[in-house]
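Field: sequence (string)
Field: structure_tokens (string)

Example rows 1 and 2, in order.
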Amino acid sequence: MEPVRYRIDARDHLTAVNKSWAAFAAANNGVGLDPAEVIGQPLWRYLVGEELRHLFELLLKRVRRTQQWVVLPFRCDGPGERRFMQLEVHAYPDQSVDFVSRLLHAEPRPPVAVLGPGGARTQERLRICSWCNRVNLSQGKWVEVEEALSHLGLFSDRDLPQLAYDLCPTCEVEFRAGLPPGEGD
């Protein structure tokens, strides 16, 4: 798979996406992610979860100030596979920023319905880390999605919970550790 590339301007609006963006969106039922629909839209529209948005604000502040590449590992799982990826972020003097997402490797797994786009959803929320895709099983215990669903008995439920994207403590510490002092607050 070719890297997914996109660019934002100084106001954080998408100005360009590559063909891989469209292919990845189509392969993953990405409704509303057609390049013609996203160009001109704010990046924030596509980041789910307050914590993830906050960390991206810090990340953008850092790369715009330093003009240096930042490389971060992350997960972008689909219902039938775990995808281990890498995000490269770089700012330019005009304050535009390039993002490059590369697939490092993928592991197939039996489909996990809760990660799919379809089906009825209950009002219940299942907290999932936006960065590593682990699920908050209970206070402070974050586990792989299959373990959480098995423990919670969600493999047999017809109506699945909504996903509430958050950041697990491990990913938050690792992410903030890469930021200069004072920028993680």
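Row 2 begins here:
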Amino acid sequence: MKEFLLIICAYLIGSIPTALIISKKYFGIDIRDYGSGNMGATNTFRVLGKKYGTIVMCIDILKGMCAVGLFYFMPYYLHNVNSLDKTNFMIGLGLASVIGHVFPIWASFKGGKGVATLFGMIIAIQPIIAISCVTVFLVVLYLTRFVSLSSILAGIMLPVSVLWIWNEHEILYRAFALLVAALIILTHQKNIGKLLRGVESQIPILKHRDRRKNRNK
């Protein structure tokens, strides 16, 4: 029963509509009425700029980390069960927060794509693997300024890290990594189409780098 209540709490944490709160408080708008209509960090970068996009991304990552952190309210899992059961429960908490972000009860079940919250969840469960995914995300973002492409490649990096680089043996963790990559690709289908057509929006960062490039041409 306590596990169920903690999973509900994890869902409610994930449901906190960060982008919606910031867009209404500081701009008097509903972020979902602009850009891609998505309530996530990518659309916030696009519509509100890098400052607020960064804030939303960091808070959404923290949502995933805090949700998994609810695990520590269960001493039974801390002291009396094997590592597989612990990992399963942590994954359950993290997935509940991601579902909350995608379908937030506080925002009419219309949220974001859950990538930042998912990364927060992975950081809390397996920080070394999370670092490899975040590194891919930041490198691709620096080179291209496409958050969607960065998210897709970082998502693909998860099963690559789990299955081959770190060779995790737990079957559920392997299945989870593959499922995450598939879900990220699935939820970014529109972005993939825009990338292929060359019409995907770039986020407004690294402008000084672009100005230097243009001056050197």
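free_text_note (row 2): Residues 2-216 form one domain.
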